[in-house]
Specification:
With 96 residues, the protein is of the alpha+beta class. It has one domain. Helices cover 26% and strands 21% of the residues. The protein contains 3 helices and 4 strands; from the N terminus they run H-H-E-E-E-E-H. The strands form 2 sheets. Strands 1-4 form a two-stranded antiparallel ribbon. The protein has a two-stranded antiparallel ribbon with strand order 2-3. A hairpin with a 2-residue loop joins strand 2 and strand 3. Helix 1 runs antiparallel to helix 2. It is globular, with a radius of gyration of 14 Å. The protein starts with 8 loop residues before the first helix and ends with a helix.
Length: 96
């Protein structure tokens, strides 16, 4: 596994939380103020229409593909050349 280099403040917070330099609560505060990048199989319009999320299976559970930076989402560009940038709290609010 290659070394992880943070690309934004959310990722800096993630590394700090993993090292226990900040609390989980502090990381969650950073998360909900940040945007996530959700890959899309369809072209996403400015109003969010057209968004076709990418899901993957993790031990029988459907998981939404979400990234902390647009460049990290490039690993899925073979199936999702588009993306939706959305506030993380808004993503959490939409989970049933």
């Amino acid at each position: 596994m290659s070394e992880f280099f943070p690309l934004n403040e959310l990722e800096v917070g993630l590394v700090a939380a993993q090292k226990k330099a900040i609390s989980v609560e502090e990381f969650i505060r950073k998360l909900i103020l940040s945007d996530l990048v959700l890959p899309s199989a369809g072209e996403v319009k400015e109003d969010g229409s057209g968004f076709q999320p990418i899901f993957f299976d993790k031990v029988g559970t459907k998981m939404l593909a979400a990234f902390t930076d647009k460049t990290r989402a490039l690993q899925l560009e073979h199936i999702a050349e588009y993306y939706l940038a959305i506030n993380a709290l808004e993503v959490l609010r939409r989970i049933p």
